[in-house]
Amino acid sequence: MNVDIKCPLCLTKNETVSHLFFECQFASNIWNKMLRWQGISRHAFRWQEELEWMVRNCKGKFASSHINRIAITGCIYHVWKERNPRLFQGKSTSVECIVRTVIQEIFYLGSLKSKIKLENL
């Protein structure tokens, strides 16, 4: 059985964790659009550098830390979610659609958190 090790998102490089989630042009476009939306002026790094950035910038109960955590987990989830239909069904979603979905989830989860706080008063 032959297994294709090429990244199903860009079809150019071998699929590794670092490539799939950060170095792949498709994933990198998602990260860069999310960073821009958050007002963060930098480009996506490789896996190890991103982990270090996450540790530094996702601590605490600040709203920005909470948004960073949701954005990061949302991007990773949706890149993985995009990978599987491309690989197994030949279906794809645009970068813009994925970014819009992650932003909607940030607003939705933020509104839930606000409602929970109000109910606990």
UniProtKB/TrEMBL annotation:
It comes from Nicotiana attenuata. Residues 2-31 form the Reverse transcriptase zinc-binding domain. InterPro entries: RVT-Znf. It comes from the Eukaryota. This is Reverse transcriptase zinc-binding domain-containing protein.
